[in-house]
Structures are given as C-alpha cells and as structure tokens.
Design goal:
There is one protein chain. This protein has 654 residues and is an alpha+beta fold. It contains 21 helices and 26 strands. The strands form 8 sheets. The protein has a 5-stranded mixed sheet with strand order 3-7-6-5-4, with helices on one face. Helix 11 crosses helix 21 and helix 13 crosses helix 16. It holds the Pfam family PBP_dimer. It is found in: Membrane. It is an enzyme of class 3 (hydrolase). InterPro entries: Beta-lactam/transpept (IPR050515), Beta-lactam/transpept-like (IPR012338), Beta-lactam_class-D_AS (IPR002137), MecA_N (IPR007887), PBP_dimer (IPR005311), PBP_dimer_sf (IPR036138), PCN-bd_Tpept (IPR001460).
C-alpha cells in the first residue's frame, strides 16, 4: 500500500489471480475492518513537520535540543554544540521562530525557514538572520538534518560565537585654540616577564628594576612574587619621552626578565600638567561597572578622576560591536575569526577647556620647587572669568587645592570687608581706628608683629588695607553684620554654592551669632574659607567692576548672578585701595612687573605657640587676576608673592 497524492487517501494494490491472493485480500479486509473498529489508526495523517520545526526553534533559543530528533547527530550532541557555541555570549540568547514551512502533502521531505533575532545591544538594531533546515520523515517521525549552520549562517563545527565590543578612540580634551591637551600618547609599560625569570631570580630582578624606575623595590618584588608564573608584572608606565626612560633604558634592558611594552595611553602634555583638573583614565572598577548598568565591562577604559571622570560619557562615546565566528586552538587561543554582524561605534565629543597651555606651564614652573608645603596658583581672565591656569606644587600631592581647597583666606578677605564698609557709607578715605589690639567679648585681636607703628591711630581705610591693619577692620563689627559680610562676599563671587561644571569651591562665609567669630570673619579667619580660585575671582570682580563667575569648561551653562551684584562705583573704591597696596604697602614687590592691584594675607592655624600661618598674595594686572597660596609661611610677601613674580616673568616670555 502507498499514500496517494492527496493527504488522507489510501490506494490499494490490485490483488489478482490465485485463491491465495483472494485469501490475502480477505485477510486484509479483515484487518481493515478490525482497524476501523479500533479507531481508524491506519488512516491517521503523518505528523506535521511544523511541530518539529517549532521544537527546533525553541531548542535553539534555550540551547536545549532534547525534544528534537536529528539525522546525522544525536539530541545530546546537538545540545552540547549549541551550548558551546553560545558560551562566550554569557546569558545572551536568541529569539527563534518558524517563519516559513515548505512541504508538499504526502512528501517525506520538508524545509523549514527559521528566523533568529539577537538583542545584542541597547540600540534598536538587532542581529537577525534566516536559516533553512532540511527535514526528512523517517518511521513516521520528522528528523532534522543536522549541520552547524542550523545555529547560525555558515557556522562550522570548529567555531563558536563571540561578541566583541569596539570602543572608538577616546575624544581629546582641547584648549581654546583647539590644540590637544589630553590625548593618546606613546607610553612604555616597564615590568618583569615571569616567563623569562622565576623564583629567587624574579625577586632579585624586580628589585634591580625597581631601583631603575624609581619605585619601592620590596613592594614591587612582593608583587612579582605573588603573580602567576606566566604573568607580566608592570612596575610603572612611562612616556616614551620620559627622562627616566631615556636615562636608564639601556640598564633596564640588561635586567633579566625585564620587559618594556609599548602602548598608547590618554595623557596630558606632562605628568603634572593640570593633572588634578584634567584627571586620569584607566580600567573601569567593579563599582563603575555595576553603576553603569551593563554599559561598561571589565577591561573598558573610563575616566577615573577630574574632568575625565565627570565628562566620561561624552569623551568615550558609544561602543560598536561585532558578532564573530571564532575558531580556537586546543589551548584556547584564537586561530581565526570572521564577522557575522557589526554595529558601528559612535565617536566621543572633545571637551574644550579654558586653560592656556602657556599660562599653565608658567604656573607649574613657579611652584615646581615647593616640596615642603602644599602650594597653589590660579590665574583667571578678568573679562570672561576663564581659568587660564590652576597649578599645585609637588607637596600638594596632586590634590584639588587650586580650585577646590578650603583654607582661611586671612587678610585677603579684607577686600570683602572693605566692600561691606562701603555699603555702610565708607569711602577709601574714611578713617578707621587702627589700634595695637582690640578686645571683643573677651577675645583680644592684634596686628601682626611687624606692623608699622606710624600707621596706627585713625587712618584712611585705603591705608588700613595697604598695611593690613587687623584692628581697623574688626572695629566695624558692631556696624557691619555677618549678613553684610556674606552679601559683600557674594557680590565679589565668593560664598555661594553653585552647580559648577568642574570640581571647585567658591568659598564660604557662614552665618554666626557668635560675636568673636563674627569679629574674626573681618580678617578672613573664624570659619571663613576660600580656595585660590575663590580669591582670584574676588580680585577679578574688583577689576571688572562686576561679579565674575568662573569658566573652565567651554559651552557649560552660565552661572547665575548674585542676589546683590557688585556695583561699578563700589568696585572703583576697592580698586583705589588695592592700588595703594602696590604703591606703598605689601604689594610693592609686584610693582616692577606691572601689577596694578594686590593684597597679602596670613591666617593662623594649628595648635603651635605661636601658631603656623597660611600665607596668600592676590594680584591683578591687565586682564589677569592671580591668587597664590602657601600652606605655611611667614607672610604673603615672602611666602606667596614669589610665585606670582615667577609666573608673570615666565608667562611674559612665552
């Protein structure tokens, strides 16, 4: 018997001739009658090939093909292949569906077309493809003809799937002229290759190398000892132009097991160049990966500190990706790979900052020898508020002192106190009582020990500022309230909590009901705090005649104006006073360099007797306002002014 061309029809072979054939016919008739009585099973249709195709689709989606019968392999082997093919994709799995079934009724052959969709990224674009699968009806059961291409187009038996992300080159940080400040530069990773040296020899080599690359020998030796037998243990990464590498390169090469590996790394023009501001780039930490919600993966390069961290998403762009068919050797190494699907990356956008490379270099050179105490210098363009330079000395250890330090500004704050007096009716010539000492609620305030006695008595406010008489300004504590000081500070760009597009501190003048603390505020002590940036902005506001806000990142939203803006007339009085500081007071040292406005400051701190003092010098010339700070010094003239002198001399030559 055979099946006819139409499903459900049955064609009998003709039985002719002998009685035996007749008996067979009768017997078959009996069987047929019996079969009909039992439920007509011999007339049931064969299984639907679509059911098998759908089971295959489901199995490919779950990597479990146990419900599918194969021709050419077993369900277990097919499942094992699919699991191995998917292994490097982690939890990523396809959506697989039957899109078309080609089968003629009565035929024992069928072709299924499966549609696969992989959601490989957050973008709307997915990896999709169709595969055609041949099926054969054997013993009333559809069998799938197995090939690795059932899993993905043209996949071979020795290939697996892998998802490779492709980051674009990180965008640069630029100066206002478009020149690159922070960009990829050639570096060399110097370390010990443990495949070339082991055991006690590795430890000895590590110590020799450490001495040549200026790192702790014992710590590096311990690091080498703890690493695996095939590890490359990095000691330091140096620029190709680093003097240390140039000086010791030949000696490094002679150390057994030492290896210098060339690479590219995002760096500034020099190791120290605006480093606390620009920040660093490195491999993403576990915390960053977790916070990114799968945007980042282990090994990705991200901003770690500074502007590189704050603007990381803008600078790194969006990764592309590629689905690859990968062929590996017995040791797991990649022998060959080919691309099955690709999604292009999106380039990051450069970040432009206001730093003037010549000014920054001059500022860093001015502080380069300050290894004993933390120091800082900030230069601001008066007309725009642009930060031209913000440097720290070596003893600051790469801190954010220049833009975000929180230190007592000392007598530089008398610029603010002068404005508060002006708003109470004072002028530059208004007389203030400058006495050797002044007691406020049991606390005695004095002038500095070398204050000139000829300028004691009732003296003009301009003279009190020029020679920095503490008692003259504190004497106004009953007339000028703490709120008045706070308002005056804000008018000069100090003391407001603004949403800055960088790590910075604009100072603080706290409210207080304590009379002694209020009195101390007049001379920039008590709880008054400022950064070098803060005091540079105060000077810039005086020079411009209106409140100056800082700018460091180009295109950042404008910062709001203070509730009480600085009046140009008020600023004019302050300029008169600050000119006198240069003409006859503590700023005379800056006069030869063309400085027009200045003020020194000292602020006591600590528990020593006598206490140590922070020292300041602020200055203005042309379109530049400058603030210099030294954590410990005798006075602003000797402890901070030299930084400004060095900066201006160097800057003028560039």
């Amino acid at each position: 018997m055979t099946w006819g061309p139409q499903r459900g029809t049955y064609r009998w072979a003709m039985l002719r001739g002998s009685r035996a054939r007749t008996l067979v016919s009768v017997s078959l008739s009996g069987v047929l009658v019996g079969t009909l009585a039992a439920g007509c099973s011999m007339f049931d249709s064969p299984p639907d090939p679509g059911d098998t195709a759908r089971a295959l689709a489901s199995g490919l989606a779950s990597a479990d093909l146990g419900a599918v019968t194969f021709k050419g392999t077993t369900p277990a082997k097919a499942s094992a292949f699919v699991k191995a093919a998917y292994k490097d994709l982690g939890t990523l799995r396809p959506q697989v569906s039957l899109s078309e079934m080609s089968h003629n009724d009565g035929s024992d052959h069928a072709t299924a077309t499966l549609f696969s969709r992989w959601d490989v990224s957050a973008s709307p674009k997915d990896w999709t493809y169709q595969t055609q699968v041949n099926m054969t009806l054997v013993d009333n059961q559809w069998q799938v003809s197995w090939t690795p291409g059932v899993v993905a187009p043209q996949l071979t038996s020795d290939e697996t799937l892998d998802l490779a992300r492709k980051w674009p080159q990180r965008a640069d940080i630029l100066d206002p002229a478009g020149a690159k400040i922070m960009t990829e530069r050639e570096v060399a990773a110097v370390g010990i290759d443990k495949t070339k040296v082991s055991g006690a020899e590795a430890a000895a080599s590590a110590k020799k190398l450490a001495a040549l690359i200026d790192i702790d020998p014992n710590r590096f030796a311990a690091k080498v000892a703890a690493a695996g037998a095939k590890a490359f243990v990095e000691g330091v990464t140096l620029r190709e132009t680093d003097p240390l590498l140039q000086r010791n390169g030949a000696a490094i090469a002679k150390v057994k097991g030492a290896l210098t590996v060339p690479a590219m790394q995002v760096l500034g023009p020099s190791r120290t160049f605006a480093a606390p501001i620009l920040g660093t780039v490195g491999e993403a930490t576990a915390e960053q990966i977790k916070a990114s919600k799968d945007t980042l993966q282990a090994g990705d390069t991200v901003g770690m500190t500074g502007l590189q961290y704050r603007y990381d998403a803008q600078l790194r762009g969006t990764p592309g990706l590629a689905v690859q068919a990968v062929k590996r050797g017995a040791d797991g190494s990649v022998i060959d790979k080919r691309e099955l699907f690709a999604e292009q990356s999106t380039d990051g956008k450069p970040l432009t900052v206001t730093l003037d490379q010549k000014a920054q270099a001059a500022a860093e050179a001015a502080l380069a020898k300050q290894t004993q105490h933390p120091t800082a210098l900030v230069a601001v363009r008066v007309s725009t508020g642009e930060v031209l330079a913000a440097a720290v000395g070596p003893a600051a250890n790469g801190s954010t002192l220049a833009l975000a330090g929180k230190e007592a500004p000392g007598s530089t704050f008398k610029i603010v106190s002068s404005l508060a007096n002006i708003r109470k009716g004072a002028t530059a010539d208004t007389k203030l009582p400058c006495t050797p000492s002044l007691t406020v609620d049991g606390r005695t305030f004095s002038n500095y020990t070398t204050y000139p006695t000829k300028h004691l008595g009732d003296i003009p406010m301009r003279t009190a500022l020029a020679y920095s008489c503490n008692t003259a300004f504190i004497s106004q504590y009953e007339k000028v309230s703490q709120a008045d000081l706070i308002s005056a500070a804000q008018s000069l760009g100090m003391g407001e909590k603004l949403d800055l597009p960088f790590t910075g501190f604009l100072g603080s003048v706290p409210t207080t009901d304590n009379v002694v603390e209020h009195a101390a505020s007049f001379i920039g002590q008590g709880r008054v705090e400022a950064s070098p940036l803060t005091m540079a902005l105060v000077v810039a506001s005086v020079m411009k005649g209106q409140t100056v806000r800082p700018q460091l990142v180009a295109g950042a939203p404008a910062l709001p104006k203070p509730a009480t803006p600085l009046d140009p007339t008020e600023a004019g009085v302050l300029r008169q006073e600050m000119r006198d500081v240069v003409a006859e007071g503590s700023g005379m040292v800056l006069k030869p360099l063309g400085v027009e406005y200045a003020k020194t400051g000292t602020a006591e701190f600590g528990t020593k007797n006598p206490p140590d003092t922070h020292v300041w010098m602020v200055a203005g010339r042309g379109d530049i306002a400058i603030a210099a700070y030294n954590e410990v010094g005798d006075n602003g003239v000797t402890g901070a002014a030299p930084f400004i002198v060095s900066f201006l001399k160097s800057y003028d030559l560039r």
